[in-house]
């Protein structure tokens, strides 16, 4: 493959994999890498029946900020969180809304495979790398759609409690979106690089076939 196209493709794939890897660590191991974050004035209580000021939802668990400090729960994927207001009205973020977040680690693995394949100079393998890049992009798109669904659901459900709260997207939400763009760029870059390499090879073969031929008459002509 043309070196001009090879290096950007490898860089895009590595960057996408690295970002997806960071997002996949998520809560509670990486407390800053949440998908959805809720800020509250302390008018809500979580499952531990204590007023909370912040709630962070990740892939493998969630964290709550209370007056006593931050507490994180490693529940595994597909967990549920119950939030209650001062009038004992409650909403539950069910496991059906958090289970799908596990697609992100799968996308990270596929992106890593595409990254390894992209470093090959073999034309067929680079084509496979391009296809795997698009597969990783598809998985990341599904994961991003799940992120959006979780954010919208949490914002809607907490809005029914009539409390002072602000629901925002976390860093993991936006890093997933950036990874999606990088994977699409990587797939296109690797694909176009392969096409340019084939065109360059066809041009060289054509030049060799149509090039000047030596012979007896040409020797007399040079003389």
Q: What features would you describe in this structure?
A:
Helix content is 57%, strand content 19%. The chain is built from six helices and seven strands. α3 packs antiparallel against α4 (123-159). The protein starts with a helix and ends with a helix.
Note the main attributes of this structure.
two-stranded antiparallel ribbon, alpha+beta, 223 residues, disordered C terminus, 6 helices, five-stranded antiparallel sheet, single chain, 19% strand
Write the layout of secondary structure elements.
Layout: H1 3-25, E1 36-45, E2 51-57, E3 61-66, E4 69-74, E5 81-84, E6 90-93, H2 95-98, H3 103-118, H4 123-159, E7 165-169, H5 171-210, H6 216-222
Antiparallel strand pairs: 1-2, 1-7, 2-3, 3-4, 5-6
Helix pairs in contact: 1-3, 1-5, 3-4, 4-5
Short précis:
With 223 residues, the protein is of the alpha+beta class.
Placed side by side, the strands forming the largest sheet appear as 4-3-2-1-7
Shape type: elongated
DSSP helix fraction: 55-70%
Q: Give me the count of strands.
A: 7
Strand portion: 15-25%
């Amino acid at each position: 493959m043309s070196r001009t196209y090879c290096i950007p493709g490898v860089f895009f794939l590595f960057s996408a994999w690295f970002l997806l890897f960071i997002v996949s660590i998520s809560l509670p191991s990486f407390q800053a890498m949440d998908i959805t974050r809720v800020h509250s004035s302390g008018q809500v209580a979580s499952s531990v029946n204590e007023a909370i000021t912040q709630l962070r939802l990740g892939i493998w668990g969630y964290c709550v900020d209370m007056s006593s400090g931050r507490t994180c729960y490693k529940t595994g994927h597909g967990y549920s969180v119950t939030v209650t207001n001062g009038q004992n009205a409650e909403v539950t973020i069910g496991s059906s809304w958090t289970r799908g977040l596990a697609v992100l680690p799968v996308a990270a693995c596929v992106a890593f495979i595409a990254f390894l394949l992209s470093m090959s100079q073999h034309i067929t393998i680079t084509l496979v790398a391009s296809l795997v890049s698009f597969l990783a992009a598809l998985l990341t798109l599904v994961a991003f759609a799940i992120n959006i669904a979780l954010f919208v659901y949490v914002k809607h459900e907490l809005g029914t409690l009539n409390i002072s709260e602000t629901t925002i997207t976390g860093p993991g939400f936006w890093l997933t979106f950036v990874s999606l763009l990088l994977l699409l760029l990587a797939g296109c870059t690797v694909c176009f690089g392969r096409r340019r390499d084939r065109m360059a090879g066809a041009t060289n073969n054509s030049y060799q076939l149509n090039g000047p031929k030596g012979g007896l008459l040409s020797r007399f002509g040079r003389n």
